Amino acid sequence: MLRPAAQATTRPGSHDSWRRTTPGTISSGSAAVAPGALLAYVDNRYVEGSSSPLSRRDAEGNGYQLRTLDDGSTHEVLKNFPSEHELIARTVKTGWGANVELFEHYWLLTYWANA
């Protein structure tokens, strides 16, 4: 049984919700730490042949994947793969010194919270 994304829950701040909630995610992360604290976010990159393909995109550009659980149920989940530029741009208002490191299967965003 397919459960559409509208029925799924995407928590603000979850790593799979970059386009929908990233400004809030970055703001809440920066607000939750002391000024000057180092923040780090990590997530997987899209790797052809390794990542589940996107099943569709919505009008806002969000990507979705179909995931099948051990019980056989299929769920549509929000999954975006932000570019380096998108990641760094999201830190401009709440931090400084942003850096993105790209690894074969993952990316790592680090930056310091504004004082």
Walkthrough of the structure:
The protein is of the alpha+beta class. The protein has one domain (2-113). It has two helices and seven strands. The strands form two sheets. The protein has a four-stranded mixed sheet, with no helix packed on it. The longest helix is centred in the N-terminal third of the chain and has 14 residues, at 18-31.
How many helix segments? 2
What level of helicity do the residues show?
Answer: 10-25%
Shape: elongated
List low-confidence stretches.
Answer: 1-16
Backbone structural class: alpha+beta
Q: What is the string of SSEs from the N terminus onward?
A: EHEEEEHEE
> Please, what is the oligomeric state?
single chain
What's the main sheet like? 4 strands, mixed
Look at the structure and give the mean pLDDT: 82
Strand order of the largest sheet: 1-5-4-3
- In total, how many beta strands? 7
How many distinct domains?
1
Properties at a glance:
17% helix, alpha+beta, 115 residues, three-stranded antiparallel beta sheet, 7 strands, 2 helices
Helix and strand topology:
Blueprint: E1 2-3, H1 18-31, E2 38-44, E3 56-57, E4 63-68, E5 74-78, H2 84-89, E6 95-102, E7 106-113
Parallel strand pairs: 1-5
Antiparallel strand pairs: 2-7, 3-4, 4-5, 6-7
Summarize the structure.
With 115 residues, this protein is α+β, with helices and mostly antiparallel strands.
